[in-house]
Amino acid sequence: MTRRSRPGAAIDGTSKALAFLGGLATLAMTVLIAFDVLMRYFLNEPQLFVDEVVGFLQVLVVFWGLAYTFQVRGHIRVDLVTSHLSGPVRAWCRVISLGVGIGVVGVLSWVTLESTLTAIRYGRVSTVMLYPLWPAMLLIPTGLALLGLVMLRALREQWRVARGPRAARDEVAPAEPAP
Dihedral through CA 19, CA 175, CA 101, CA 54, nearest 10? Predict the structure, then answer.
């Protein structure tokens, strides 16, 4: 077991905590939808707030789970071509793909943060229940930023391996969060 730096441990702890909150949000969505169905079926009283709250919770599940999912290699991966490449070539392909990915995640984080700040500035609210939109919108850039940090750590490790001894050059799995 390798010892993690303090920032690395903080990133691990944060990604695990946010993934755990995503699990709780999934449970809350299930309970809310069941409650809405029962109220609609037995009392003919649909719960209007459920659709909006479940939508907000779904954003939490998706974006706050990104970093942890990356760490445990849970994202969809297509290695049809790279599986036929030599270890050193795979190592450099991973460096390039992580670099491009970090750039894309960085741009998305910035744009979604600007959108969130605009929602705050103009007081945007949801359609039915008039909830402020910015808290749900803020989940997106924060989740993306954490994913970027996890990817940056993976890039640092991949760069080290890609430049190391030729026999050891290959694709490195992202660092899994400490238990």
Answer: -10
